Amino acid sequence: MTSAQYQNYLLQPLGYGSLRNFFRVIIANRGVDTQYFIKFLYAFFLCLSGIPVRIFERVIFDHKIASTTIDYPPVFILGHWRSGTTYLHNLMIQDSNFAFVPSIYSYSPEMFLSLNSKKFMAPLLEALLPNQRPMDNVAYSIHVPEEEEYAIGNMMPLSFYNGWMFPKYLRQNFERSVLFQGLSRSLKAEWEKVYIKILKKTTFFSQGKRLLIKNPANTARIDTLLKLFPQSKFIYIYRNPYDVYSSTKLFYEKLMPTYALQQISEEYIEDCIFDFYEQLINQYLESKQNIPLGNIIEIKYEDFLGNEMMYLNKIYTQFNLPDFEEKSQVFLQYVHSKSKYIKNQHSLDRDLVKKIDQRWGFFIEQWGYDIALLNQL
């Protein structure tokens, strides 16, 4: 086995959840393709090896998590994948007043308190994992912020990121876990219970800090988030749809070989990218009307770059967040440290640009971008 293959197996999220959830997810997505059987077995044995740790954590910590209260309204960063959510999130968590879901927690939500308490485990896991995310050039470690969508998928089958492992059912996972379409009342209630537990555990781990949560899937879940946390604050960041398409396509091309346990066609992925963007943003535009006045800020990614401090000041002022002046220096240091970050380069052919114009023209105009890009090619 090559080093790259070994890291792919380690990055298989399914291996870090419970054995019960492992089989629930497998059954819900109709199994794995034969060429991925070794990866499947590796994930299965990872699940088995984690049983003692999960039992220990449940016994020691579950009653403490249940009694934890979330005293501050969470701040949710929304936006389609590849729209700048990660950069905004990583910048804001330089403020130590915020709590976030670290990657070790998102991947192993029912073990991470125990693993984190063992001093030898963190260096071992750090050494085994890659130092960059598989889909871009962003630095990665077990302590960096991660989307809690992975944690949901390791606790129940209703997670969009399960679709990355089972791409034949990518569309069904999106419709059920992001849009909440066709769910029974009991399954929706289970999702809400799991989600509250994840955020309570994050709050417990951070000793009661305000939650700063970044998850693009939440862009279509505003109504549910408001039901759970009525005074939530929302930051929606959007980006030129042409760039979003290119970056998302590359994202899937690099991510699928790492996670996938099923084979699908490139055409299927392209259709999903177009459909998911439309459904996600349409749901956002409909649901944002339900957010209380003053509890949402919208940011254009291209305007944010180079003007980070101005927008952070606006966020802190509008949401009445403390200590902006005290934290301004750490924000500036982070911005300067990322000034030489090399973005992935993208290109679009004429036929693809025409299709983007046709499918996403409304959104291009909605966000004030130039739909005449086709004439420049």
Quick synopsis:
Helix 14 packs across helix 15.
**Overall pLDDT score:** 90
CATH class division of the largest domain: Alpha Beta
Rg (C-alpha, Å): 20 Å
The spatial strand order of the largest sheet comes to 2-3-1-4-5
- What letter string, H or E per element, gives the SSE order? HHHHEHEHHHHHHHEHEHHEHHHH
By CATH, the topology of the largest domain is Rossmann fold
Assess the beta-strand content as a share of residues.
5-15%
The appropriate CATH architecture of the largest domain is 3-Layer(aba) Sandwich
Number of domains: 2
What is the name of the CATH superfamily of the largest domain? P-loop containing nucleotide triphosphate hydrolases
Helix content: 40-55%
The shape, in one word, is globular
> Total helix count?
19
What separation lies between the terminal Cα atoms? Answer: 44 Å
Query: How many strand segments?
Result: 5
Poorly predicted spans: none
Structure description:
The chain folds into two domains: 3-346, 3-Layer(aba) Sandwich (Rossmann fold); 350-377, no CATH class. The protein contains 19 helices and five strands. It has helices at 3-10, 19-28, 37-49, 51-66, 85-92, 103-107, 112-117, 121-128, 149-153, 162-165, 170-177, 185-205, 222-228, 241-259, 266-287, 301-304, 308-318, 324-337, 350-366, and strands spanning 75-78, 98-99, 210-214, 233-238, 296-300. The longest helix is centred in the C-terminal third of the chain and has 22 residues, at 266-287. The termini are far apart. The model has no long low-confidence stretch (mean pLDDT 90).
